[in-house]
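Sample entry (174 residues):
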Amino acid sequence: MNASNIFTSHANLADTQTDEISTEIKETLTLLKQFYDVPIVKFIDFREVYSEQLITCNDKESVENELLSYQKRCTQEKLYLFEDTFFDDVSNNTHKLIRFYAQYPIYSVTNKLIGVVLMADLAPKTLIGSQKDQFISFAQLLQTQLNKNSDSVSNQSTKPEKKIMVKSIFMYLV
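Predicted structure, serialized as tokens:
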């Protein structure tokens, strides 16, 4: 085995891990979209590695611009929840297509902000009961998926959490 084969093997391993994490993120976003029955779910990775989105509406460009407007205004590291944006001055966009918006931060194993997960709807929506907590659980599941390939100590501490959250999410889906 020569040096180029070793380099290729490591590159393929990294690509495989990246593909696996991307697939898991897409699956989680699909579950989030189905669970809340919203046309817009998105994960924004500030590191620009794993950003994914699922948008099913007619005017995607206007929706993207409006989402960007919300993201620029929701800068604190907390849960943002606007059940009817018509009555909140969150977006300076004149289209006002998005009527429901929720956003939650995603952190690395070192507690550094690495992205946000968001969901939006073209109609107002009220989250009842444990739906807010479930949104946070979806965000934590994404966080676990993103952080699972960190060092082995971090990997051991996040695996049990992932099992609990997946079980929790599927209990509500069934």
